[in-house]
Amino acid sequence: MAVKRALRVALVGRPNTGKSSLFNRLTGLNQKVGNYPGVTMERHAGLAKLGAGVLAEVLDLPGIYSLHPSSNDERVVLQVLTTEDESERCDVVVGLADGTNLKTCLFVFTQVLDLGFPAVLAVTMVDEMERRGAELDIPALEEALGVSVVPVNSRTGQGFDLLQAAILSAKASKKTPFFQPAGSHLPWLQKKQECIGAGLTYRAWLDGLNDPDFADSVRESGRSPERARADEAIQRYRWVNQWLRKVYHYDPVQDRRVAARFDRLVVHPVWGSIMLFGVLFVLFQALFYGAAIPMDATDNGIAGLTKALNKALPSGFINHFLTSGLLPGIAGVLIFLPQIALLFLFLSLLEESGYMARVVFIMDRFMRPFGLSGKSIVPLVSGTACAIPAVMSTRNMESAQERWLAIAVTPLMTCSARLPVYALIIGLVVPNTPWLGISLQGLTLLGLYALGFAAALLGSALLNRVVPDKKAALFLMEMPPYRMPLLRNVFTAVWTRSRSFVVEAGKIIVSISVVLWFLASSGPKGLPDFSADYQPLPIEESYLGSIGRGIQPIMAPLGYDWKISVAIASSFVAREVFVGTMATLYSVDGDEIAPVRARMAEEINPDTGKPYFNLAVGVSLLLFYAFALQCMSTIAVVVRETRSWRFALIQFSAYALVAYLAAWSAFRFISYLTPL
Q1: Based on the domain organization, do 162 and 191 belong to the same domain?
Q2: How many whole angstroms separate alpha carbon 98 and alpha carbon 116?
Q3: Closest C-alpha to 360, from 369, 371, 373, 370
Q4: Which residues pair with 604 in a beta bridge?
Q5: Domain coverage including residue 62
Q6: pTM of whole model > 0.85?
Q7: Per the domain annotation, does 347 fall within a domain?
Q8: Cβ neighbours of residue 646 closer than 8 Å, sequence gap 6 or more
Q9: Fewer CB within 10 A of the terminal residue: the chain, N end or C end?
């Protein structure tokens, strides 16, 4: 006897209709995050108990404006709703309709009904609808649609018992089809139905208009695919307008005036930009400084645990593996949690309040020439604190092309991990003397931040030209109303995304950390003797040191000796490890920047008899670290977000090549101007 799977329920609706709130209320924290089959777009699913012995898998589909896809998220929804795979097919569709914007929501819902699904319409934002004095005749709307209509309030849980009961008793509408193709559309529609076999007329309609190979057959009818979609929209909106005149009573004039008055300030070219700068400044400060205390606490806590284990366990393999391999890898995961949680806390608040749409609107004109939209400003600004939460923040982007571009260029932003390296090198080769009253060292650091931002924008523009989005559409965005953020949604977003980082990216980071531990603690002469008399292997004699020495001939044109090459190899763990490795190689106690800098300043170039770290070598190093992707955690997160090792390796290699060429050019040019 076949085992019956759980009832699969899909949530379908336009953006900003309360889909996430409904999903979170139904499933609580019983959710999982994955990817839709064949694409890297994130997929949220959760389990909900709908009744005695009835368990349902609830699928949160991306927000759409139509089943005629113009973006990757809409293509995903069409794929889910039209799949022939029984294991992926939905049993019931719950349509979402914002009670303050029923017209456009009903357009999408009637498309779903014409596909023949058992369905229920959930009317959300009922509290706002009532506050505005709107009235909805539920029985009359049910009669028009032929399915159950349930008003719900995700904040209070109002209507959820009725919604669960309606899902269990859901049936396909007998009022369909709401769209009936006629005239010149019939010949090509009949041809498409013959191609795909017997089935619903509307399924053949969608398949024909969204199949590029079938476009010529559509045009032979004398109507282009675009005109055919327009014919459908006209007919559907005729039905919707007819219903709403009878069942919905609301005067939106006053509400629009209030929202418009506030938006005059929020999206104003000057005042809106100042407000946005303030919001991004707070976001940056929170990521950079607000997360410092919990990050330090995490670091100190794991350091304390490491010391305790080191004392409690006998010297040997287990001791060294735990204290030098596994725990540092775990620290490399947990230390980023505060920044990730804070970032998604801010993003969730901005999304829930409706302000994020205004951010996109303000920044879109500036970012569009570089292949990005206004939403890209969030990962780019976040990248100045850390690339890891910044890359994760690209999940908020609906366009797969734009998300790909943002992930590709965000690590170019100057992150906090580069600051120790910059502080060491700038203090070593840039004189601490004012120029026109401005500190040259401070000006150099500012220039590196500007370089990172410019490189990210130019890199995006270049990639957008090399791999243009052939299906790019005109920018379309609906301004949602301002709302008080729902804390349940905010908490769920922070929890699920933080957990996703720890579980998914954490596995990769810890694995790489263990591999690097092995490379740093053993060498070509054999494995170390992890006995009571064990002494750490000098890093220059380890496999990692051998790798550094091996790449030294390659790095020599940049002005680097074997010590710098070893430090570059070791800093793949994290960029700031460069300072600690240099301290080890120059026999400096601890890894404080000042003593390391003083010892490096004493280094003499044997070929010239002058200081080894001159301006040419220093600028070369600064540019190398400005472009090179020397961070295993960032690579792990890129793999996690793109589901592609190939993407991450190409990104790493491309950054390495750009870093090498920039460093080589700077070293040669400055050496030419200031010969040794």
Answers
A1: no
A2: 23
A3: 373
A4: 611
A5: 7-168
A6: no
A7: no
A8: none
A9: N
